[in-house]
Write a structure and sequence with these properties.
Layout (H helix, E strand, L loop, with lengths): L1 H31 L3 H9 L12 H7 L1 H16 L7 H17 L5 H23 L4 H20 L8 H20 E2 L1 E4 L5 E4 H22 L6 H21 L4 E2 L2
Antiparallel strand pairs: 1-4, 2-3
Helix pairs in contact: 1-2, 1-5, 2-4, 4-5, 4-6, 6-7, 6-9, 7-8, 9-10
Length: 257
């Protein structure tokens, strides 16, 4: 009975600390006017990555890459949402980060691994596309390569195949290429009236492509490495159709050549 009570208390403390991390990171950004302190807080929260022998650091870094991408990306997006006091987007991004830390990140099933990777793709490329206009495009492509590598590895490591280096490299390369294309073809969707927020096309397109990839991988796991057309056809048609509709019907391109 005593052990059960300690487990409940430990869970409550764990949840409270994670929620505090999300709230404090946003508060630091809003108060200071930049995201440096929030990013440092995210990095410090990963202290266990190096709390082992140095030979395990690289393995731990790769294993925690998706969590790091989501945390840093949301800190950057909070900064982009404005620093003139708390607004609706600050609250929404804080809630998303809290849900990530408390409910999504701790899960270890294949489905949740895909959800975690999809969130890393979406928010990671969201941050890259939002900040790319004011940064070196090569740096944006490099960051996108890391995002694609980390997200694909997070999914592939769930399977039996121990040699997926080429697949993760290609995933990173494809995401870097997409970032380069959308850097020169800047399209955003504006949401909100009083507090405006712009969502670029890049995270939407990248997430749809990764969604199709994840469905194909799930099919391969179920059928001894073979992807069945029935499993991949509808997700592929849905993703391609939505991308084409966005590009041809809801795009007012701002070309930067």
């Amino acid at each position: 009975m005593l052990r059960k009570g300690r487990n409940v208390l430990s869970s409550i403390v764990h949840v409270g600390l994670n929620i505090a991390l999300a709230v404090v990171s946003t508060a630091l950004t809003v108060i200071s006017g930049n995201c440096v302190f929030a990013i440092l807080l995210v990095i410090l929260s990963k202290w266990r990555v190096i709390a082992v022998r140095p030979r395990y650091w690289w393995i731990n870094i790769k294993s925690n890459l998706v969590d790091f991408i989501v945390g840093v990306s949301l800190a950057l997006l909070v900064s982009v949402a404005g620093s003139n006091g708390l607004n609706m987007w600050h609250v929404i991004l804080t809630i998303i980060y809290a849900i990530w830390l408390v409910a999504i990140k701790p899960q270890s099933s294949i489905v949740f691994a895909q959800v975690q990777s999809l969130m890393a793709i979406f928010f990671g490329t969201f941050a890259v596309a939002t900040i790319a206009a004011h940064a070196d495009p090569f740096l944006g492509c490099l960051v996108s390569f890391i995002i694609g590598y980390g997200a694909s590895r997070h999914v592939l490591v769930q399977g039996d195949d121990v040699d997926f280096t080429l697949t993760t490299f290609l995933s990173g390369l494809i995401l870097a290429e997409l970032t380069w294309v959308f850097y020169h073809w800047s399209i955003v969707y504006v949401i909100g009236t009083e507090t405006v927020y712009a969502i670029p096309q890049l995270p939407i397109v990248a997430s749809l492509i990764f969604f199709t990839f994840a469905r194909g991988y799930t099919s391969a796991l179920k059928h001894d490495g073979k992807i069945r057309m029935d499993d991949i056809l509808l997700p592929a048609i849905f993703s391609v159709s939505l991308i084409l509709v966005m590009i041809f019907c809801f795009s007012k391109a701002n070309f930067d050549v």
